[in-house]
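Here is an idea for our session: we take a single protein and study its fold together. Which protein we use is up to you, so please pick one and set it down. Once you have written the record down, we can walk along the chain together:
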Amino acid sequence: MDTLWREINGTGIGVYPIGLGAMPLSIAGRPEEAQAFEVIKAFVEAGGDFIDTANAYCLDDSDIGHNEQLIAKALERLGKRGSVTVATKGGLRRPKGEWTTDGRPGSLRASCEKSLRDLNTGAITLYQLHAVDPAVDLAESLAELMRLKEEGKILHIGLSNITPRQLEQALTMTPIASVQNRCNVLEQTDLRNGMVALCQAKGVAYIPHSPVGGHFRHVRFRDESMLTRLGEKYSASSYQIALAWFLHKGQHILPIPGASKPKSILDSLKSVEVRLAPEEIAALDRLG
């Protein structure tokens, strides 16, 4: 397990193995901007260089782009714009705070162009379809992302919240740099259905979101007895054990734990120091 960097497969971009999932900084219950800035500052000053965001990380449709604007402002203040890779997403809307899909080509184009402005950049390094819209053919949504790539507005295309079959379909149309799905040691669907292995075989980075449970379920990880026992053995937190388990699953995996406090992301970054034994990894595999 290389702790120094991992490539976002096929892009030539090397990043620290643990990224920052920035969603908690902008949704309901978000911290004050000063605290959010401290989270991003702590992350990049400790060596983090990959931040995941989305235009829909906000309170509602009137707040679209909040997270992207926050990240752009923080990186500008820190003088880190050129050294941190920011991935964003389009394809969801937030009417009255709800989460609804919108994969229509025109909507994706408008979202991408607003993200370019909110991130204050000429091209988005990694632009991901946030979710497949059941009312729009995946090929239709993907074709628009391909046009945006041809125009130089995005450099690499990623997909989020998809199935192995949908990934296979997408790969017949264009290179896919990443898949971002929910997965963690207690929710191992993508390990069981072959998605993680498929990504590895096809040269696609796998970016598990909610790798320590996410905004609402992380307490389960703190209290899980096997994680706490291993944490005591390695002088690590339960969250570090859960992330270390993921890092052992393949060089193409880039977990993006969320954080709303500096101490949380600093704790996550230390997971690269944990070396689990094969029998411990196998025991954690059975938790799912």
Summary: The chain has a mean pLDDT of 96. The two ends are 22 Å apart (CA to CA). The CA atoms of residues 19 and 256 lie 4 Å apart.
